[in-house]
Design brief:
alpha+beta, Beta Polymerase, domain 2, five-stranded mixed beta sheet, two-stranded antiparallel ribbon, globular, NT_sf, NTP_transf_5, Nucleotidyltransferase family protein
Amino acid sequence: MNLTAHTRDGGGAADLLPPDHTQAILEVTKEVGAALKGSGCPFALVGSVAAYAYGIPVRLQHDTDFAVRAEDSETVVKLLRGRGIEIVDPPEDWLVKARSGGEHIDLIFALAGRSVTRELLDRAWILPVDSVHLPVIDPTDLMTSRLAALSEHHCDYGALLPVARGLRERVDWDRVGEETRDRPMAVAFLYLLRLLGVLPHPPTARDEADDRD
């Protein structure tokens, strides 16, 4: 089958791929980030845009995500509404959804079931995001939250692998392993990283015996 011709007819595999909204999402990220910086409420970029800020070559396709504390949600929502950003009330109680310029925004109060705290936000790195400096979730917290979110229903190692490779020198992998030790999909992914040589293998009992000799 000629895939190019098939695609031109509107039935190709390319039609199933979501479009790359990178620049549009970055513009919305800067807009919301500027508003949050003026609010006095602590926050940090999370998700794919956070990975992008760390230099990971990801395509931004869906939304931009901000971690904020639940106790700041009313202040943040009021501020964004005042700037003409549409607020959407989702059925979930751990985030608020918004829209601006056709792009989606998630204001997240819990990452993989764990509440966003001041301590987590204080660990954020200040990085340029398309020329605007914004707080970005710490690399270890980014990997921990991404791995903790994996489940039998959503387990895309392919999307996580370039993030892990790109961040490996900046992540405290011992803390990631400790905080995700009860998540089978996360444990399996960390094992895969060792098989691929992204992370070193832990020393075996034989290695420790050789060292003593």
